[in-house]
């Protein structure tokens, strides 16, 4: 058992503790969580690089400015300048990791989600795969989650626009999820803008990600992601006992959109691309699922613990994600 896997299991236990008990001081929770996650980042980066992380490490010294890099400049370009300052791939990645942790901590606070959400997000297998393989998508996830939190606190148009654009320019797959910009608001009904944007994205889907890397993201088929999202939707609807009003209804509409999106991507895109869409959709679905638990169950601690355990288990059960935690530096 590697140090990385041991520490991952330790964080799982920490997350389970937060399922049952909360720290009263938000500042103390944020500081403690940030320190624990920072250690996780350091252990992960100095345990050796997996799969695409080797490529990320190599490109830090590149000066290539082809269209492939310019389409997603937030990471590709800034990482090169940061690397010149640090002269270390490990430290460069750690800095990006720390920024992503700050965004998730701030997003949780904005959305007033329970404290275990931070650990559920980081330890969920799409994030584990992202930190160790599809790194730009992991960073885009974190920025997009923060963007969602801004929509839920009704932040200003330009602030929301900045962060959704930042996510898109980190990994273009974020563009497929932009209808959320128009869905989450204080209006009683779903907006025409969200319907129009959703329809446009679905119609243009065959052309989306056409030039993306074909590198795989694990042994799971894209259909598995779709099935998991469907079961989360069933849980969500059952939790609200079919009484979906206001924000609950908005997230229901978004569930329907991402299910259609994932279904279409499975049919129209290559395996690697459709998996990326599925991973992104799974990450987003954590938010309404956690909200459903907090609003509908008296025995929240028990339900949190059960759901947390179920969602974390695949990381340790599936070889594609477990192998990421078994890397040894050479």
Could you outline the blueprint of secondary structure elements for this entry?
Layout: H1 3-20, H2 26-45, H3 52-59, H4 67-70, H5 73-86, H6 89-111, H7 116-123, H8 125-132, H9 135-152, H10 157-168, H11 180-183, H12 192-204, H13 222-239, H14 247-268, H15 271-296, H16 300-317, H17 319-322
Helix pairs in contact: 1-2, 1-7, 1-16, 2-6, 5-6, 6-7, 6-9, 8-9, 9-10, 13-14, 13-15, 14-15
Could you please describe the fold and organization of this structure?
- The two termini are 16 Å apart.
- The longest helix is centred in the C-terminal third of the chain and has 26 residues, at 271-296.
- This protein has helices spanning 3-20, 26-45, 52-59, 67-70, 73-86, 89-111, 116-123, 125-132, 135-152, 157-168, 180-183, 192-204, 222-239, 247-268, 271-296, 300-317, 319-322.
- With 330 residues, it is an all-alpha fold.
- The chain is globular and about 55 Å long.
Structure described in brief:
With 330 residues, the protein is mainly α. Helix content is 72%, strand content 0%.
Helix and strand element order: HHHHHHHHHHHHHHHHH
Shape: globular
Overall residue-averaged pLDDT value: 88
Radius of gyration: 19 Å
DSSP summary: helix tally? 17
Secondary structure: helix percent: over 70%
Distance between the termini: 16 Å
Low-confidence stretches: 210-214
The count of DSSP E runs of length 2 or more, i.e. the number of strands, is: 0
Structural class: mainly alpha
Largest sheet geometry: none
Beta-strand percentage?
A: under 5%
């Amino acid at each position: 058992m590697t140090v990385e896997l041991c520490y991952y299991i330790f964080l799982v236990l920490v997350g389970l503790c937060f399922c049952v008990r909360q720290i009263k001081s938000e500042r103390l929770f944020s500081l403690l969580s940030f320190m624990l996650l920072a250690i996780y980042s350091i252990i992960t980066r100095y345990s050796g690089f997996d799969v695409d992380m080797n490529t990320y490490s190599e490109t830090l010294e590149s000066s290539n400015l082809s269209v492939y890099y310019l389409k997603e400049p937030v990471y590709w370009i800034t990482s090169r300048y940061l690397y010149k300052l640090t002269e270390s791939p490990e430290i460069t990645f750690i800095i990006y990791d720390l920024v992503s942790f700050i965004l998730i901590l701030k997003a949780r606070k904005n959305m007033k989600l329970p404290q275990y959400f931070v650990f559920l997000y980081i330890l969920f297998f799409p994030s584990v795969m992202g930190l160790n393989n599809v790194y730009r998508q992991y960073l885009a996830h974190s920025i997009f989650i923060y963007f969602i939190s801004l929509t839920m606190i009704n932040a200003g148009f330009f602030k929301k626009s900045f962060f959704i654009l930042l996510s898109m320019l980190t990994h273009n797959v974020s563009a497929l999820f932009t209808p959320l910009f128009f869905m989450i608001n204080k209006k009683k009904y779903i907006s025409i803008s969200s319907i129009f944007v959703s329809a446009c994205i679905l119609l243009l889907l065959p052309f989306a990600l056409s030039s993306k890397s074909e590198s795989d993201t694990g042994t799971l088929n894209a259909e598995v992601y779709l099935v998991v999202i469907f079961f989360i939707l069933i849980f969500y609807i059952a939790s609200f006992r079919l009484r979906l009003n206001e924000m609950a209804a908005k997230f229901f509409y978004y569930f329907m959109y991402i299910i259609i999106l994932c279904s279409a991507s499975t049919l129209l895109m290559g395996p690697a691309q459709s998996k990326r869409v599925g991973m992104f959709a799974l990450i987003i679905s954590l938010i309404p699922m956690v909200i459903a638990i907090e609003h509908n169950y008296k025995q929240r601690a028990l339900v949190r613990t059960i759901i947390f355990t179920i969602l974390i288990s695949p990381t340790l059960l599936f070889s594609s994600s477990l192998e990421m935690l078994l890397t040894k530096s050479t």
